Amino acid sequence: MTLPTRLKAFGSVVLCLASFRPAAAQGTVPTFVQHAGDKSYVLMGADPAKGGTTTIPTVLAPVTLSFESKKVGGKPFVLDAGKDVPALLRSPIFSRFKFPTAGETQYADAMLRTTFPAAKDWHTLLGKPEVKPITVTIPAGYGYVLTSKASGSAAAVVDLEFVQKEIFKQLPKQDGKLVLAVTPNTTFYAMGDATVCCSWGTHGVDRATGNSFVLASYLNHAPSIIVDKDAQPLTQQLAEFVNDSLFDPLYQHELYEQHLNPASAPGNAVSWMRPASMRPGDGGRCGGTRVASTYFQLQPTDTNLKNNFPASEPYVAGEGKAAYHVQNVALMPWYTGSTESMGKTYSFPDEKILTEAAQPCPARRGGSGVATTPTATPIVPPAAGNGHQLIGYWSGYAGANGTFPLRDVSPQWDYILVAFATPDKNAPEGTLQFHTPTGMDPATFKADIQYLKSKGKKVMISLGGGGQHFTLANPARIPNYVSSVTKIVEEYGFDGIDIDFESPSLSIDPGDTDFRHPTTPSIVNLIAALRQLHDHFGPGFMISLVPEGTQIPGGYPSYGGQFGSYLAITYAIRDILTFIDVQDYNTPPLEGLDGEIYQAGHVDYHAAMTELLLHGFNVGGDPKQFFPPMPANQVAVGFLVGDVEVTEVDEAMDYLITGKAPAGTTYKLRKPGGYPEMIGAMFWTIDGDRRGNYNFSNSVGPLLHGYPAAK
Questions:
Q1: Residue 15 pLDDT more than 60?
Q2: How far does Cα 48 stand from its chain's mean position?
Q3: Domain ranges of the chain
Q4: Residue 199 forms beta bridges with which residues?
Q5: Are the C-beta atoms of 358 and 335 separated by less than 8 Å?
Q6: How many other CB atoms sit within 10 Å of the CB of residue 685?
Q7: Closest Cα to residue 575, out of 639, 608, 531, 622?
Q8: 281 with 301: CB under 8 angstroms?
């Protein structure tokens, strides 16, 4: 269960110069240092106070992506950006277009001239590019292709860092030149984890070559679910490069993984001790420590960020068939506040998009509007169960009031999953440990478990959690796993275990291609360990799985790495499995059985992804690798409190269980009458629901408990 704080840091407020090295020493494009108060930052070009024209030598690298996980006529599926080169050369990136605040010029030049309105006879232009095509092979586990049956169009979702490294294996040092690497209809995930999705690219200085670069997509005949068009992704990343020319995206991600200060990465960063910025138009989400976003490299003007294709309102440059869509971006005064040299224009090209400088975020926990002690009364469910269950994760967090005891869980919750027992880093491989939350007495905690069980509830211990790496690669370590889990279950009186080992745990090894006969040691050994635990405790022992979207439905377009990594486990223990509830929030865009693309946050997505399990599917699109349907009474749907509306959950569950489609639904269930035997809905977390005055459990619980008993 990935914590929502793991993913997203966006924007910045006050910039500082971090790890700056002179551009000449790196062989990057020309840059200049600009001051704002006592802070400094580096931009592309030459000092506006000195005037003149700087021409940036440019390399245009159209990228062909070849996917090993998708075959057409026995050959890898190919997406080729080469066909987009003529349109790119005509676009505002290289050609002169009229902009409202800067006259007729290129996009980047117009952006800089809008940032520095007092500069006269000053230009920063991209030169006519050298075209150097590149082909990158995407192995299984590093990305996948989505296609739209209705339009015949295709889009890719790929590993950003992998593609960057592969491109610059083929492009040697390009001293003083800007490399524009262009991918076709491609969105990216970061940190090698497809649940950290999605962006249109990245930018900065490549670690291996020292090249200044922009890596982004050009959108041509893209699936209709993608809102952005043509040059918009490229202009977004180009604008970010202009404002943060020494950024090192690979270093940034390494710092995050090591829990180090991201402000120490090269480039323009906000002071570590200052608050992040609010993101306008995005429901009040907080920002982070960089220009644009830390991981996704998106603009504060973007919406629909989490696990979806990026989307924002474009500026249309030109007219008719010669028109292009370019990105509305935040200018430096938005991040720093206005200065005498930069003026008070906060966005470009449309200055009405951002009308004031960035505002600091409020405190994250215990802030205004967060109910730490509920004022509503939890609804008591009927005494007799109907086979439908409300499932939730409990971590004991009560906001400003510290922890809240298990016995205070709303009676609507039927299955309570205690988060988490984690891998013991100081013990041999496979060993799990569990500690009650800080300040909570173990004896009282154990008594609360027995109290809930006396009320007919099931209390399970969840193993793993977001950010916890688990491996069981050595079969000799299976006893460590079995004995440590047995001790936890017996000591606390849990009814069973929940498996929550997220990416990169349990990643499928290269060459492991058949989910029915897995060869990846961690997967094979975990299956054996789960069977030993079941044999030890007997048939009443509960086992549940809570895979991320990549780990089950992600196995439909591609099988390998994190994609489909829970399929072998699910298939192998289906006879002893109590339920599986796929997370419908830690998931990138994916494809449904109808051949159309869906993304998180809609009833269509919940229906399409859940029916993959309920109906079965061809793993990796291969009809010879059919994953059989799961019984409906073993399937639940996973939701994230705070990331989904109650009405969306109610409508999704009602559609799946009864077949009654809410207005606006486009996905058609393969079983029109729905799946009345479905077990129910899961939420991360019970704690968040309680702080929200039981808004989910008091609505979804009565809905589930009010259906006729499953037959």
A1: no
A2: 38
A3: 4-16+36-348, 389-705
A4: 188
A5: yes
A6: 22
A7: 531
A8: yes
Q: What is residue 203's three-state secondary structure?
A: strand
Strands 212-218 and 267-270: unpaired
How do 617-618 and 626-627 pair as beta strands? antiparallel
Single pTM value for the model: 0.92
Q: Measured between alpha carbons, how far is 99 from 515 in angstroms, rounded to an integer? A: 55
| Pairing assessment for the beta strands 201-205 and 75-80 based on DSSP bridges | unpaired
C-beta of residue 689 within 8 angstroms of C-beta of residue 410 = yes
Quick check: is 491 catalytic?
no
Confidence check: pLDDT of 525 > 80: yes
Closest CA to 94 of 67, 58, 119: 58
CATH architecture under which domain 389-705 falls: Alpha-Beta Barrel (3.20)
Highest mean pLDDT: which range of 20-34, 437-451, 624-638:
624-638
Cis before 626 (ω within 30): no
Residue whose tokens read 């009458």: 673
Tell me the pLDDT band of 503, cut-offs 50, 70 and 90.
confident
> What does the alpha-carbon distance between residue 557 and residue 69 come to, in Å, rounded to a whole number?
8
Catalytic site residue from 502, 548, 596, 611? 502
CA angle 663, 664, 666 (to 5 degrees): 120
Choice among 27-31, 84-88, 520-524, 613-617 with the minimum mean pLDDT: 27-31
Q: Output the CA torsion 478→483→488→491 (10° steps).
A: 170
